[in-house]
Amino acid sequence: MGQPVVLIPGPMHPAVAAGLEAHCELIRLWQELDPEAVLAARRDEIVAVATGGTPIDGPYLDSLPAVRLVASFGVGYDRIDAAAAAERGVVVTNTPGVLDDEVADTALGLLLMTVRELGQAERYLRAGKWADGGPYPLTRATMHGRRMGILGLGRIGQAIADRVQPFGISVAYHNRRPKEVPYRYYPSLLDMAADVDTLMIVIPGGDSTRHLVDAEVLKALGPDGILINVARGTVVDEQALVDALRTNTIQAAGLDVFEHEPKVHPDLLTLPNTVLLPHVGSATIPTRTAMANLVVENLVSYLTKGTPVTPVPESTHLLDG
Ligand code: NAP
Ligand code: 8YV
Question: Which positions fall inside the D-isomer specific 2-hydroxyacid dehydrogenase catalytic domain (predicted)?
């Protein structure tokens, strides 16, 4: 019997293919001259997919009937329909935990940049305005004594909470369910937004959280409010955010993710009260390598023992017993 066949639909971190090569035959679909012909010829042999962002839904899985595992690079798996996969007996895995500190560091950096206008101040210096125009204006906001509401106190949200407390920043949170943590829980996002001046978004993306942060939530956050999003752009109604920033309904926003990324709403680029990063939350060599290694671990463990290491919640019942 030949080696199991694993499909890689699009480019992904090179450590994934390097780690898998000894254990399976790989189809690097994007490198094939005629990808459709390759898929048609091999569709009944492909038992697993390793993906770094290709959308995968029910019909996609129906076209690959032998697939039993989809191993996704990244903790967020909103581009994969995990429920449709479960209905077809396909397990989905992601890469939780190994990136928490990196993303929390990015969130903290983004918060500092936004509160203290560090990007704007650096551009001021580089434009020669310091020498010609005097010191950069004092910032209205400070880190100390802020009141942060975390939308999504999970692994990364907790790592952010750990980091902000030495700044004297208080923490509250909104999840669907309360946790045993020493922070105030708000069953209502709107009520939390009204009580804080810093809204930190770290919930999963996808249909269930689309536009959870809308015009009403932004209005509740108020004119001293700062919004930070390191989760998914889809969680925020981006047009409502642009309007809120333009009318000073909120003070400023720091964003690592965008609703239609890599496209960025053109007004976000020109508004003075935004700090914008190109989805770099986990983007260091050590962390991306750890994520790639976890993709490999999931696939190898599944291919050799039938038990992947980090299945997503929608898949766990498929592995019980
Ligand atoms: P996690 O541990 O699963 O935490 C997510 C939290 O969100 C949970 O506490 C969950 O609590 C809460 N939540 C889920 N749905 C909710 C809803 N509808 N309303 C309110 N709260 C909800 O996930 P994580 O590992 O911290 O990652 C969080 C997200 O960050 C990922 O899904 C990903 O999209 C994003 N991310 C971005 C980057 C980046 O590069 N910018 C990097 C990594 C991750 P309940 O279940 O009680 O609601
Ligand atoms: C990566 C992420 O940017 O893990 C996630 O959910 O958003 C990031 O770590 C992404 O997975 C890279 O494809």
Answer: 11-312
Nearest residue to 61 via CA among 9, 103, 22, 109: 9
Question: How many A from CA of 212 to the centre of ligand 2?
Answer: 20
Distance, CA of 221 to CA of 199 (rounded, Å):
8
The CATH class, in words, for 5-98+286-319 is alpha beta
The pLDDT tens digits of the residues spanning 287-314 come to 999 999 999 999 999 999 999 999 999 9
- 66 DSSP assignment: T
Q: Judge residue 104's burial from the number of C-beta atoms within 10 Å of its C-beta, 0-12 exposed, 13-18 middle, 19 or more buried.
A: buried
* Cα-to-centroid distance, 41 and ligand 2 (Å): 31
Q: How far apart are CA 26 and CA 14, in angstroms?
A: 13
Q: Are 157 and 150 in contact (CB under 8 A)?
A: yes
Q: Is the CB of 204 under 6 A from ligand 1?
A: yes
Ligand 2 contacts (CB < 6 A) are: 52-53, 73-76, 99, 279, 281-282
Gap between the Cα atoms of 169 and 191, Å rounded: 19
Q: Which two tokens stand for residue 266?
A: 């053109």
pTM over 0.70: yes
Please give the CATH number for the structural domain made up of 100-276.
3.40.50.720
Q: What does the domain layout of the chain look like in residue ranges?
A: 5-98+286-319, 100-276
Fold identical between 5-98+286-319 and 100-276? yes
Residue 254 β-bridge partners: 228, 275
